[in-house]
Queue: 2 jobs
Job 1
Amino acid sequence: MQLSDAGLVLGIETSCDETAAAVVRGGREIVSNVVASQEEMHAHFGGIVPEVASRRHAELITAVVESALREASVTWHDLALLAVTRGPGLVGSLLVGVSAAKGYALATGLPLVGVNHIAGHITSSFLLAPGGAEPAPQQFPALALIASGGHSDLALVEGLGRYRLVGFTRDDAAGEALDKTARLLGLGYPGGPAIERAARDGDASAVELPRPDTKEGFEFSFAGLKTALVRIVEPDGLEHCGHSVPDLAASFQQAVVDCLVREAIAAATHFRARQIVVAGGVAANQRLRECMTDAARRKGLSSYFPPKSLCTDNAAMVAAAGYFQATHQGPQDLSMEVDSALQLPS
Ligand code: KG4
Ligand code: ZN
């Protein structure tokens, strides 16, 4: 499908707990980016409740889409394409976004693509960010690390819209491990930012923790690391375990970061990547940014992290990924379905 450099794409994202819509020009320039977060609501339950999430998406979706169009000062007639996340994610949440997008496609006659959420996260590195921060240079192949609450994936980026899965987690995702550990340490939800805050006053070498290595391919495993911390904390309780919460948080954060950096650098070296791009909610973590930048520099590689507003779930990344997907593969028809376990091609 031929899309012009000025082609406007409306992106819709409802895979998890953010209801988001955005307008992106030419797969690169963010014109509007609206995110309605459900974080506070889920913090009340200590995590995401799928049924609550999908109901909230249904309540918010129309208003969020309309405000994305309004903020971009465009109408439906100005758009060239609709892009919606079709997986991976929570099935009820995905269904809200995909059903809405199909409705809009039917009503407007606009072409539609169903986008892989992970492809969206990868594409966020190449977006012109608000505030004028430079995106990652288009140097390929690049190695992408996508670390979020649902995923810890490594992808080889052969070009924009050409992504291949080369590594994944055997068990928990990095963000999931941080979220569960934050709960164990009484730090609340979402766990990643809470652990990062607590870790600022802690010593990352105070508590000895493993750096699990599956020795197979470029695989992560965080379940054992989490269990190691449980074994330290649970026998005598948090107050009497002999370590402060900041020390526990800093040591755990460092162990997660070390595993992410080790596999990303190994994969980048193996595939002769020219740069490393890091995306997903965990990419907002300052310690990860520092350690990855240092390790990549030692290998002669540059590394890029999108601004924090583009690391967490948003629809600008979905619109951009949709633009490149439609360019390579064309639009899809209305039989396109959600797939809660959708993966990148390997
Ligand atoms: O990409 P995202 O918004 O949603 C998913 O697709 O999962 O990522 C959310 C995850 C959560 O696990 C959250 O704890 C983690 O990203 N996260 C962080 C930070 N900010 C968010 N982890 C570590 N440090 C942060 N600053
Ligand atoms: Zn995500």
Job 2
Amino acid sequence: MAEYIEKEDMTRQKGFVLKIKELNNRFAQEKGRVPLVKTETYGCQQNENDTERIRGILKDAGFEFCDTEEEADIVIYNTCAVRENAEQKVFGRLGILKHMKESRPDMIIGLCGCMVQQKHITEKIRKIHKHVDLVFGTHALYKLPELLYKAMTKNNKRSVVDIEDSAGKIAEDIPILRDDNKKAWVSVMYGCNNFCSYCIVPYVRGRERSRTSGAIIKEIKSLVENGCSEISLLGQNVNSYGKDLDEDIDFAKLIRMVNEIEGVKRIRFMTSHPKDLSDDLIDAIAECENVCKQLHLPVQAGNNRVLEQMNRKYTREDYLKKIDKVKKKIPDISLSTDIIVGFPTETKEEFEDTLDIIRRVEYDNIFSFIYSRREGTPAAKLDFVLSEDEIHENFNRLLEVQNEISKRKNDAYVGRIEKILVDGESKNDKNMLSGRTDSSKIVNFKGSKELAGKYVKVKITQAHTWSLNGEFVEECI
Ligand code: SAH
Ligand code: SF4
Ligand code: F3S
């Protein structure tokens, strides 16, 4: 059973919120404006969900938000450690902030999230980036009021640092400020126990711990009361949801419970580990009316020796068998996956097996990554067989194979009428609206801006590799 942060500790944090409010009132009296915060998220949906909590806490403490560092009194970067380029981006931004802080020494710079949960990174920040005022890890998020208050009142140059090493407890009832009021992420569990040999996540997020179904359902009901209708259930491996709870529950039962909540129109979830994908879950996806017929099932590689080195605990045969089952039970399922290209020890021939699995499954979409060495993981000790050029060549071949499949899959949508939840203006063309189908495909179409946040029917007229175009038919009732 997961441990929870004690009620007294949460109440203590509320005391710091009041203290920050006082500081902010004083700030407003002196400067004639409210202090502004800029937040930036570098990681996955869980990281994004954490940023929403950070913003919830800050809003309660009297801050408002701005879009750029130039306007900000406080900058908070919520970092990611999964690949080196995510870390490099943050260090690049810190360099720019150093100059900014020289002319505005009162500015507070905060770093949080997965990257700072690693010792070698906090050392580097302490030595090279002394202008960072506040560093807090993934397990210390609930303590933000106390840490920020310390950073706002400290009169020495030392940064306020809180990187708890513990596997982490669950903190319920942290305030949250969401950007979108129609769609929401709801974390059902935290951490990961799988220790895939390339992956840093278990080290920075701690062991798996599930929230009780009661807390999850309560959060979703309150979201629905506020107009939300699309819920994405989040966890690093949602298929092992509930294993640590005293309740008689698993993920299949949980999504059946969410499916019963009135007002929830779409349920999505990620991520599923193939080894834990149960028949019960496949049945639940097939039978629950509001669960989107969409499954993200990361395969990572198609060769059995590589899968074993990755510590994935399934073979390509196991994986393909599960995919077959899914396709039989849910013929209109939309499938996606993650692939790592250039895992150490992988040979040219072994990579052919990855291309083979892509062709066999025919995913709607894949997310492909070039392997990035993560310090402290078992794979970091392995040697490469392929050169960097060969790895890039494989990466491009993978995209080529997948692009052809994605386009073919999208072509099959032409002529269909699809239900879309309209997100708003299209990112690429302000004259178009953009939204997603049940299967999560992006659809762009012309329509009135008032349709944002509504479900509409759209006739698909044209397919591209990554998106669809359509014509507005009518609003859904
Ligand atoms: N828990 C999820 C996702 C974790 S991270 C899962 O198991 O699927 C998201 C993706 O990043 C992974 O699926 C993997 O494809 C990729 N990834 C993780 N570590 C990586 C590394 N060291 N180098 C490159 N890609 C990596
Ligand atoms: Fe990383 Fe594997 Fe856990 Fe996913 S399941 S977060 S890839 S260790
Ligand atoms: Fe997510 Fe990156 Fe952390 S992928 S869990 S933010 S390491």
